[in-house]
Amino acid sequence: MKNMNSGEDDRKSSFLTRSNLKLLALLAVWVVVLSSIYSCGWWLRGKSNSFAVGEPAPRTFYARYGMDYKDEDMALWLKEQWSERAFGVLLYEPEKAREVAEKLEYLGNGYYSNMLDSKLVYLLDVLPEEKRNNLLKIISLTGRRLLKSHPISISEEDIWSELEASHLDSSERNVAYQVLLDIFKMAMELDTRSVKAYRDYLKEQFEPVEKRLKVGDVIVWRGEIVTPERAEILVMQGYLPEKFPWKYVVSLALMTILWGMWIRWYLRRRGMLFNFKNEVMVTTAMALGWVLLGVTTYLGGVGVGVLPLVIWLYLILEPSVAFHLVLGAGILGVLASPAYSLMDLILGFVTVSASTCGGYLFIPKVRTRDKLFVAICAIGVLVVLAVLIAMFGFSLQINWETVVIFVLWTVLSSVIGVVFLSLWEVLFGAMTPLKLVELTHPSHVLLKRLQLEAPGTYHHSLMVGTLAEVAAESLELNSLLVKAGAYFHDVGKLRRPHFFVENQRPGENVHDELAPSMSALVIISHVRDGLELAREYKLPLKIRDFIREHHGTTCLQYFYKKAKMAGDYVSVSQFCYPGPKPKSAETAIVMLADSVEAAVRAVWQEAGVAPDIEGIVCDVIETKIKESQLDETPLTLRDISVIKESFIKSLRHMYHSRKVTSLEPEDGKLEEGQNGK
Q1: What pTM, to 2 d.p., does this model score?
Q2: Three-state DSSP class for 281?
Q3: What is the pLDDT of residues 36-51, one digit of tens each?
């Protein structure tokens, strides 16, 4: 028993992890927001558009969309009318057929008084003799034809059908029908079971009544009882029943939970789980997008409220992740919005799909606000065309008023998306392409300080930025983020720029006068100084990651060996950066580009000849791998190979070099930290 309880406790503790609790909290927020939006829309629409099955309609309901439907009420009435044509089925025994035939022959010869009911005799007596004799002959011929064509049973409909083919008028036909029915009933009896079976057969042969409902046609008049069939049409047209649809809300909540779990699985599979701040940002963005979807749908712009969400997520997240989030959130938003008719739902899904695809095609390429405007216009045109095509395909009435309202809401939603874009940058530090372009512009205050106070570091940062950007593009990473991170990775050198070799004049090196441990302390401190400047100038958190991680936990081997050679008793930890190691592919690329550029430049300046670029690049990258600096990144061996080839190609263009004999220090490798790097 103790072991069993222990196992249950372990399962509970494994389920109630911090990650699962955060997921449950997010799912709860999503369900509450979507359910609230649906409930508000239902309450606003339901006050004037609701109905109850089996109750009189509170108003006259008109068709909002054209549609084809089967009129079940009319079909049922017509089936009943059609089946009533089967008056009855008469069955008789074969031996009695002779008796019926004899009576019919007597009728043909003019004898009828002793064979018919007194009422029928009276009807025949009042007829003129010539007309009566002609009628009796027709009755006799008709009866014999029926006996020959229907040897087992004769239905009342069969009698009537035979008489309709004659030239008798309606009154004579009625008399003949009653006489024949009386003659046959003398020898036969009515079979009710056969009558029912025949009537059911006639009902089955009846084709349903299909009708075309046009815009403005009356579905139910005020005061008319709402039948289940009419209620179904009203629901399809977007009218609401008086009873709140709890089942729909529950199904919406379940779909939201399943979608949220799938998104978490997708992100985990790709190794892209959000931190808490990013989860709050994405949830806030989706909640605002859902509210806008509800408002625009209520006011005539079905589904266009998803456009702000398209702008936000595609500018903030990777395109593949944004695609899944926008498409799923958009569909859920349409289901929760006041899109109650089937056509509203279809048009909403079309709008969301077109917006999602348009965002994937156009927004990731945006780098300036002008291009963002062009991308938004392209998405808007795509959405309007998709909706018009859908309306044409479903034979919906297209009027200019509807089109103008839809276009206006498209424009307004796009404006809202652009206006709120700065909210994510300010509150959550989101790195949009527009923000990154502003950061990498030479007019940025920190970059201007680098140009004036540490020109060597500024030039080095530009070179690292170029190397890293090209490598990131080769791996299809966020190259603009990598470029911005490279531009600011050494900003901490502004505190003491002359301690770093790229800012020193030829022949001057302040480290010649300092103890190795002091030199190492000053050089290592540029990471801490950079983080302080980043906070002071409010650089985004992702840019600070490049400052913090671009050296990882590498050691300044040059100064460490110099201290050992001087006989100082020092620990190697004194000469190592505090870290952490790079945790993303982007920061790892900047680390490698930083070390490679410094190594190639050092050889170029010291030797005065074209360096062996391929050898230096391979040596630097292999050193980083041996020192386990890339262990916490998602880079694969293939990625590292791509980065290596990109660096070699870019550096050869920069230095216009050809392969020459390798120039290496005495220990066979380039040592980081030499001369203050």
Answers
A1: 0.65
A2: helix
A3: 998 888 777 665 567 7
